[in-house]
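Lecture 7, part B: from sequences to assemblies.

Below are the input chains for today's worked example.
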Amino acid sequence: MDRVGIIKREKVWWVPWAFLALPLLMYLIWVIGPILVSLYYSITFKDSIFYPKGVRVVWLRNFIRLATDPQFYLALKNNLIWLAFFVIVPVPLGLFIAMMFNLEYKGSRLYKTLFYLPMTLSFTVIGTIWAWIYHPDFGALNTFLRLLGFESLGSTPWIGDKRYMTFALVFVGVWRQVPYVMILYLAGLKGVPVELVEAAMIDGARWGQRFRHVVIPLLAPATVVAVTISIIDSLRAFDIIYVMTNTKARAAEVLATYMYSSAFHYQDYGYGSAIAVVQFIITLGFILIYVSNVLRNELQQ
Amino acid sequence: MKRLLFFAVLSLVVMGLLAACGPKTEKELVINSYMSDQAPKETFQKVVDEFQKQNAAIKVTVNTTAHEQFKTLLGSWLTSKDAPDVVTWFAGYRMQAFAAKGLLEPIDAVFPGGSFEKEFPAAFKPPASYKGKIYFMPQSWYWWAVYYNKDVFAKLNLTPPKTWDEFLALCERVKKAKLSPIAIGAKDTWTAGGWFDYMDTAVNGGPFHQQLTMGDVSYTDTKVKETFGYIAELSKKGYFIPNATSYSWQEAAKLLFDGKAAMYLMGQFIKDVAPEDKKPVIDFFQFPYVGGRTEYAVDTPTDGFMVPVNAKHKLAAKKFMAFLATKEAQEMFCKPLGRLAANVNVPVPNADAERGLAMVKGASFAAQFYDRDAPEEMAAKGMNAIIDIMATPDKMDDILAALDKERERIYAELK
Amino acid sequence: MEQVMVKKQSGKRRRPALVAAFYVLSTLLVAVWLMPLVIALFTSVKSMDELMGNAFMWAPPRKWIWQNFAEVWQRVGMSRYVLNTFIITVPSVLGTLFVSSLAAFALAFYQFRLNRTLLIMFIAGMLIPFQMLMIPVFRLSDLVGLRDSYPGVILFHVAFQLGFCTFFLRNFMKQIPYALMEAPRMDGASDFLIYRRVILPLSISSMAALGVLEFTWIWNDLLWSLVLLQRDVLKPVTLGLANMQGEFISNYNMTAAGSIIAAAAPLLVFLVFQRFFISGLTVGAVKG
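Predicted structure of the full complex, as structure tokens:
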């Protein structure tokens, strides 16, 4: 079945461009423009962008320093940990929860609404409260563990110890990401045309096969968005780490926090911009791989 | 389709025009403040209202932004086309860095009697100036000292120590009683900055510490290592609270209030978060003397105001600054908040402040604070290093060597 | 999807074990997931003295001080902040939904050389960490004179969200069968009419979901309001909440109360619009 609508009209080539004119204009001015300026900052010296006398360009010096900076590699490593967890956990879990809450039981709508709530709270509050949950001596988690008898586990400083920090923070990130993915899949599930599924059913396909061969492909748009967003959010993670480590991430440092510290705490906007550029390239790399794959699959259909 | 496009672009243009030409009054004063706490914010508004009353022709607006966000935006505001007319800030290197870039307006003339020293302490002049001109108007300041829980001391029959040896002995007694001698909220790294300032000035004197924050002394210098040795000793003996890095400064303060910790080297604002019933239980003593020294130094972080060079209403700004410098305005702000005013003619607000002031007056040297005296990056990495040394005292030499490399790079870039 | 399951179950009686499993699992899931929010509620009704007096900061309150909410609403000015946030968020969401649907339509249904490149470009705009764009955006709005104004913030949000929204809508639009476009076109309808009368109505479900997500996102935005707004009278809830953080002192209870008030709006929007993108009991009887 031809689900893809392709319109080739040489005579009226300008039609898509007419539609794109306004969005493109706005996007170029407000997003691409600032990104290019940011790129420019990455080759300037420290905070010389604030010198009334003039900006000092140092070309690749910031990048060279970055290449031998252990904190940068630590941040990169942590981001990869975030990436791994963000792709593996929220997407299947969000799908499972969306499907479960979609069942025709009474109260499922209430469950959906309640599950959406974590997305509505500000990061400041989320961060503060999770810090209270994670506190080694008085936190909710350790108190609970000690009640269950896990004395030593129940004294772990989850966000005080460099071995656990990133994982504890990733957990909070995932906690917040799952409702997000659930919403995406709820929308996706609604868009699944019943006729198709019924047709497959009439063919007698077994439930498992039906799921894999009919439902999953129909959920493709939601999945693509969910995975893309999870990749991007994991590599761009900032707020949770910023709030829960009181802006001094260090062992839990990720690229975004390191960039922020460099620019706004160390007054080195040049270096911060360089980190941003590197992060951008890395994320773009992952996205290109994934999206190209998806686009190729689309064409095949 | 074309119609749609046309209207879209038109509406964009119209919106832009509307926004760009709003009424711009000549006589206006825009103040950007970081006093987001309820009490200072309301008190400052009263001061502004008084100014407004005396100057009905000027429309005054105060814009408040929380501290952390304020610091992030200040640089952008100062270089903006539409810079605010007055901004709050602190004295010391952090202000001088902006002056060095030519972003501040000199305000020598706004002080009562036309000169700084007439009503302001001479010691405050250096951190408020740059290359001979004054750019900063001090308003209020506070001190740091060792705060302690009187009930805990009474229970263990302790008295505030005068020397380092007495201090160590006291810590040991507290530890034996299964309490924590020293609380510290190391999640907020600046708590370590306080320890560094006081320890270093106690061991090596104020002027040496000043050279250090100016970047002229290496962190691997024997004298600096001596300072860190003292701090490391406290850590090795287990005198700091366990898991200090999991506590924010405020959460650690609770341990002091609850009597689980005996002492806390902290700023005077610690009393602001004490529960009502615990306020009378908390008192302070001066940081102990080390190695037979008879002189001592204090940290006196000073808050105040500056005028950006890009301000649109400089006349109004200077008028406001002159108003803020008067005894009346300073008293109006500091008295309800229990803070010490920079203007020497303002009476001391309460008994606590009197003792604090006496302590400061007796000091031979006053610093702002580690992260206000040194460039921000240096202070940030320095405070991280202190906390690392507290956590792993055996790695002290390596930590300091790495820190010194950073020092060289940071101060070299400043030139 | 759910009709399939219903059909399956109508074939056999709904096994009580399955029903029980659903409720137990769902309740457990929600309970665990919402625990931090419950703690937020506890915090919002405590006094600072109680918070500072008890080491277990997450414990249920001894005294429920509901006045905290009133105080945050009036004294701290939440009422004004909430109004401001609506003024900023609603036009932004509507604006970005509209503008991005234009771009998504073009990218989904037309084949032209730069199609793929443009899609990547829209995605690429989401990749850069926002904090790095703070200063360029500040300077841009400063230059244009749009700084410290509502139109400035709204325009920015509309433009900034285009990346994600275009990507999202384009993906969902691709699902619409081409046949639905062919018929009107053969009748001579203009492309814009097809967009308006055929594609948009078919995209209601994805646009509603997107709208809810965007509303939540823009409503909770701190960074851009911080960069683009200076005057206190314009500030949204996020800045109001941030301002409750003093230089040293955090008023946990007020911040929690303020956050809960702030969370009410996205929740409301979700409740109102969920029927558009969540299959509910309204979605038909079993087809026979």
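Note for the exam: Residues 72-281 of chain C form a domain with the MetI-like fold fold (CATH 1.10.3720.10). Keep this in mind when comparing with the next example.
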